[in-house]
Amino acid sequence: EFSAGAGKVLDRPVQPVERTYLGEFRISAYCPCDLCCPGTSDGITYSETVATEGRTISVDPDVIPLGSIVEIGGKTYVAEDIGGAIDENRADIYFDSHAEARKWGVQYHDLYIIGN
């Protein structure tokens, strides 16, 4: 039985999530294989986190600060990695397998930073 907070009215308004539009980005995909990450295919990001499908993206840190939460195509990701071909309005979504990364291909999506 769950009763904690049941029927309780919040005593403060819920703040909407702030989203900052950065424009349309070219979104490609990568995985930890030697084809996608030659010489650095250990699965560890530039931020020293373990790259995780559904969370990790590679960005240009001059455009999107590392650690930022971003929204791409209605899904949220964390800017944890950088890449040699990733600059300006480009980003790479991490996938566990090369087949899934290739399936994603290249897409164009509006990109938002979530929060301040």
Q: Which labels suit this protein?
A:
116 residues, six-stranded mixed beta barrel, mainly beta, single chain
Annotate the secondary structure layout.
Elements: E1 19-30, E2 56-58, E3 69-72, E4 75-81, E5 90-94, H1 98-104, E6 107-114
Q: Would you give an account of this structure?
A:
The protein is mostly beta strands and 116 residues long. It is 6% helix and 34% strand. The protein contains one helix and six strands, in the order βββββαβ. The protein has a six-stranded mixed β-barrel with strand order 1-5-2-4-3-6. Strand 3 and strand 4 form a beta hairpin. The longest helix has 7 residues, at 98-104.
Taking the sheet with the most strands, its summary is: 6 strands, mixed, barrel
Count of distinct strands: 6
Radius of gyration: 17 Å
Overall residue-averaged pLDDT value: 86
Query: Termini distance?
Result: 38 Å
Poorly predicted sequence stretches spanning 5 or more consecutive residues = none
What is the tally of helical segments? 1
Describe the global form: globular
Strands of the widest sheet, in order across it, are 1-5-2-4-3-6
What percent of residues adopt helix (DSSP H or I)?
A: under 10%
Structure class: mainly beta
- Helices and strands, in order, run as EEEEEHE
Give the percentage of residues in beta strands.
25-35%
